[in-house]
Specification:
89 residues, alpha+beta, Multidrug-efflux Transporter Regulator, Chain: A, Domain 2, 13% strand
C-alpha cells in the first residue's frame, strides 16, 4: 500500500476528539490493525469508516471501550445477514 492510504492516528484522534488509547484498545481487541510507518502509528483509510462508526455508537450510547468488541461482532453479523437477504431477492 502507498503511504497516502494511511492516516496518522494522532491526527485522526485529534480530528475526532478521541484519545489515542481508543484506537490502541481497538487494535488489542483485534478490531483494527495499526501500521507503523516512519515511526508513526497509522490507520488505513479503508478502516476509517469502521472506526468512525464505532466512535459514533460509543458516544451515542456512552459505551466503554471494552463494549466495542461486542458491538463490532454484532455489526459484522448484521452486515452478513443483509448480504444474505440481498442474495435471496
Amino acid at each position: 500500500m502507498k503511504q497516502d492510504e494511511f492516516i496518522i492516528i494522532e491526527e485522526f484522534c485529534s480530528f475526532h476528539e478521541v484519545e489515542v488509547s481508543l484506537l490502541q484498545d481497538l487494535e488489542e481487541m483485534g478490531i483494527i490493525e495499526l501500521i507503523n510507518i516512519e515511526e508513526n502509528l497509522c490507520i488505513s483509510c479503508e478502516t476509517v469508516y469502521k472506526v468512525e462508526r464505532l466512535i459514533r455508537l460509543q458516544r451515542s450510547f456512552e459505551l466503554r471501550n471494552q463494549d466495542l468488541d461486542l458491538i463490532d461482532t454484532l455489526l459484522k453479523k448484521i452486515d452478513q445477514l443483509e448480504k444474505e437477504i440481498k442474495m435471496l431477492k
